[in-house]
Amino acid sequence: MPNKETVLQWLSEVEHPGFDDKNVVELGLVSSVDVSSEGKIGVTLTFPRRPEPLKNYLKGAVEACLYRHAPGGTEIDVTLETKAASKPAQKGIQFNLDQLREVGHIIGIASGKGGVGKSTVAVNLAVALARMGYRVGLADADVYGPSIPTMTGTENVQIEMMGEDENDNLFVPVEKFGVKWLSVGHVSPEGQALIWRGPMASTALKQIILQTLWGPLDFLLIDMPPGTGDIHISLIGDVPLSGAVIVTTPQAVALSDVLRGVNMFRNPQVNKPIYGLVENMSWFTPEEHPSEKYYLFGKDGGREMAQALDIPFLGQIPLVQSIREDADDGTPAALLDRPDSKAFQALASALISAI
Ligand SMILES: Nc1ncnc2c1ncn2[C@@H]1O[C@H](COP(=O)(O)OP(=O)(O)O)[C@@H](O)[C@H]1O
Ligand SMILES: [Mg+2]
């Protein structure tokens, strides 16, 4: 029979697809290995107290790995355990608003459709507000495409949980750039978010907002999922939003989505103030010619829409290559002092005035 070290070596072939393909041994998930002289190998995988949708996949992968390496006829037994006595919060949890009691304004950042730069605006607005001295948190509730971990360079951070039982099992947000961040993406391995649908998605995003140790904040921004579906209604129903900011591009098709977004918040049952409209990708400015403006998606569509709908217009953000690069690198543009960074600082000031 192999010894324990050999078994661990075998198991280091089993990678966790959610953590940059780090293997289960490296990730510290293998808590015990027992090799008995009667030809039995027992392995225990212990998971930290966080949601781990890939548990059963990993169990199967570990079993397959052991069968592949062990001598024929070896009995294989893999057990799963969760660290600490309590189970991670799941269905049926009662949400309460305790964690939001020290939060001043809860602002939903919404857009009628995806790809207009909602997350880019949310992240940079958070950073710009923090630079002004406000205490800021951002909850990434976009269950369909959480991008905050990448945009803040926190994709490999392991989220801790606090509290002793299911009812006060709380996420601890990641602190970086003076902002507290927590994303659906932080608590589910990469690529898993897309399979969250319906009630599960609603529960997940409410957990992100309501079961997190935000502490005292002036602003909690919520990067909402794009669109205006059931998940939004459920979110707006359970989270006491103070109001919303809507992001669009100047394009006519994007603007018709804005109208739907605005109507969602203005619906009598919802009735939340819209603090303003942000026009993103207002013009393209080449890096080497900062004074030139090319209106790729039309000119002032957002400004005109805001006027027509009687919503404050919070400002225009140019389309600049470095904003995209900074997002991909995890260093938000608003941290810097470039001309395009200033657009986010102006946006933050305009929001404060609108509120
Ligand atoms: N003003 C901008 N200038 C350059 N690139 C931008 C700008 N706004 C957004 N992007 C890029 O466009 C893509 C979509 O933006 P994102 O914020 O993820 O949109 P959404 O959250 O609305 O789906 C990202 O790659 C982002 O970096
Ligand atoms: Mg997004």
> Would you list the SSEs in sequence order as H and E?
HEEHEEHEHEEEEHEHEHEHEHH
Mean pLDDT: 87
Class based on secondary structure composition and strand pairing: alpha/beta
Quote the distance from N terminus to C terminus: 70 Å
Total domain modules: 2
The largest sheet, given as strand count, sense and whether it forms a barrel, is: 8 strands, mixed
Number of helical stretches of at least 4 residues: 10
Query: For the record, what is the CATH homologous superfamily label of the largest domain?
Result: P-loop containing nucleotide triphosphate hydrolases
Taken from the alpha-carbon principal axes, the silhouette is elongated
Low-confidence stretches: 85-91
Walk me through this protein's architecture.
- The protein has 355 residues and is an alpha/beta fold.
- The chain folds into two domains: 4-82, GMP Synthetase, Chain A, domain 3, CATH 3.30.300.130; 98-354, P-loop containing nucleotide triphosphate hydrolases (Rossmann fold, 3-Layer(aba) Sandwich), CATH 3.40.50.300.
- It contains ten helices and 13 strands.
- The protein has helices at 4-11, 55-69, 118-131, 148-151, 198-210, 230-238, 252-266, 301-309, 321-329, 339-354; strands at residues 30-36, 40-47, 75-82, 103-110, 136-140, 160-162, 170-172, 174-176, 179-183, 217-223, 243-248, 274-284, 313-319.
- The protein has an eight-stranded mixed beta sheet, with helices on both faces.
- It is elongated.
- Residues 85-91 have low confidence and may be disordered.
- It binds adenosine-5'-diphosphate and magnesium ion.
- The site of magnesium ion has 5 residues, from helix 3.
